[in-house]
Amino acid sequence: MKIYTRTGDTGETGLFGGPRVRKDVLRVEAYGTADECNSAIGVARAAGPDPMLDAVLAEVQNQLFVVGADLASPNDSPYIPRVSATMTAFLEEQIDAMETELAPLQQFILPGGTTVAAYLHLARTICRRAERVVVSLAAEEAINPELLPYLNRLSDFLFVAARIANARAGVDDVPWRKP
């Protein structure tokens, strides 16, 4: 199978089990943004987080493929995995476990610290953009109601993961200093 099909050369793409649509529709923007978030997590993993964090990030990357498949599949299909409350609960468990290692926040922090943390902050902001696009999509058409809680919790997870990457590396978070 060739990587190129030429079917998208006119600015359209096919949804799983659905019609061909323009590449700039909200559904495509949503799963494309989730894919960007996944890629940013991949860059954070390539920067060398500790093995425990890396394993959790690998699981999150796999979950983001489910997010993409869910968003790319407007029709019900038993063959397409869907985002579930169990996936959101997994993120909450990870957040709770990591927060036991962290001092409570006393001030706002800036993205930065270690390279891993900086990339996780980037992934967090991409996740927030994905969430905004999914909110817009949900206003126009039906989506899996588990998508928004998952993306909201994912951005929280990525924030805490960035903090834990810094803490485990012995690097302080970067405090915001009011001008």
UniProtKB/TrEMBL annotation:
GO terms for molecular function: ATP binding; corrinoid adenosyltransferase activity. Pathway: Cofactor biosynthesis; adenosylcobalamin biosynthesis; adenosylcobalamin from cob(II)yrinate a,c-diamide: step 2/7. GO terms for cellular component: cytoplasm. Pfam families: Cob_adeno_trans (PF01923). The keyword Transport does not apply. It is an enzyme of class 2 (transferase). Its main location: cytoplasm. The keyword Ion transport does not apply. Its EC number is 2.5.1.17. It catalyses: 2 cob(II)yrinate a,c diamide + reduced [electron-transfer flavoprotein] + 2 ATP = 2 adenosylcob(III)yrinate a,c-diamide + 2 triphosphate + oxidized [electron-transfer flavoprotein] + 3 H(+); 2 cob(II)alamin + reduced [electron-transfer flavoprotein] + 2 ATP = 2 adenosylcob(III)alamin + 2 triphosphate + oxidized [electron-transfer flavoprotein] + 3 H(+). It comes from the Bacteria. Keywords: ATP-binding, Cobalamin biosynthesis, Cytoplasm, Nucleotide-binding, Transferase. Residues 3-164 form the Cobalamin adenosyltransferase-like domain. It is found in: Cytoplasm. GO terms for biological process: cobalamin biosynthetic process. Belongs to the Cob(I)alamin adenosyltransferase family. This is Corrinoid adenosyltransferase.
